Amino acid sequence: MISSLVKSGTSKIAGVVTSRAHLASADGVYALNKIKLGETALDALESPNLKKLAEVLTTRYADDAVAKALVTAMGRTNTAELATKLQKQQMNGWLDSQKSFDYVMGKLKIADDWNLTMSSRSLDALDEYIKLFNVRYPLAKTDITTELANCFGGEAKFARLVAIALQVPQSRRVYVKAEKFQNALFKQWKDRNLDPMGVLVQVVNVKETK
After folding, report:
1. Quick one: pLDDT band at residue 150, thresholds 50, 70, 90?
2. What are the DSSP calls for 144-188, one per residue?
3. 148 CB-near residues (< 8 Å, 6+ apart)
4. Per residue in 47-70, pLDDT tens?
5. How far apart are CA 187 and CA 196, in angstroms?
6. Confidence band, pLDDT 50/70/90 cuts, at residue 175
7. Domain of life, per the record (predicted)?
8. How many Cα atoms sit within 13 Å of 113 on the Cβ side?
9. What is the predicted pLDDT for the residue at 194?
């Protein structure tokens, strides 16, 4: 079954994707929309042959290109369902290989630029990865706020970035995300018996409002 999948899967991909540029391009949606293991996308999603397709893609195009294409394809109606399932397979592969959070965030292009990260769907992908991680490793549970703080220079620096995003949001989407992260930080500080506004004033240099 596996060998036939690799053979048929690779031929299907090769027939549609003639160069790495299809997945390394801005969206890569065309390629993902054409990769099917049945007559319809629903057939593909229900097919047992889909199980190893993410590995076939990764082998051919590398983790970075596949992760980027999947994140974009999940935002498109015609590829969202298939891309979501393939992304879950890719993430389970990272867990099986015990990849670090630095590795995962690097592949999702999260650490490259704070402003781009806040407006990207990659944060949604990271959130999904963390859910899978917590199920796999319940004794090492983590959350997206903690991991982003680790990625962007520690809690104090992350809190500053979040505060700036709230003060000058690029979009409604960015504001909602920043508010979510600030609320999570407040909860963490309260759990440590710290006054959230006091901490915010101290580490972020935000004037406390009366």
Report:
1. very high
2. HHHHHHHHTTSHHHHHHHHHHHHHS-SSHHHHHHHHHHHHHHHHH
3. 110, 126, 158, 181
4. 665 656 777 777 777 777 888 888
5. 8
6. very high
7. Eukaryota
8. 4
9. 84
Query: DSSP alpha helices (H): ranges in 36-100?
Result: 41-46, 53-73, 80-96
Locus of tokens 């406390």: 208
Task: Read off the tokens for 181.
Answer: 């992260």
Rounded distance between C-alpha atoms, residue 126 and residue 67, angstroms:
11
pTM attached to this predicted model: 0.71
Cα-Cα-Cα-Cα torsion 85, 79, 59, 93, nearest 10 degrees, comes to: -20
Q: How far is CA 20 from CA 17, 77, 86, 140, in A?
A: 7, 23, 18, 37
pLDDT tens by residue, 58-108: 777 777 788 888 888 888 887 788 888 888 888 999 999 999 999 999 988
Instruction: Pull the structure tokens for residue 173.
Output: 């989407």
Any idea where the domains of the chain sit in the sequence? Answer: 1-97, 98-210
Question: Which residues, including other chains, have CB under 8 Å from residue 207's CB and lie 6 or more apart?
Answer: 201
**Cα–Cα distance, 96 to 12 (Å, whole number):** 26
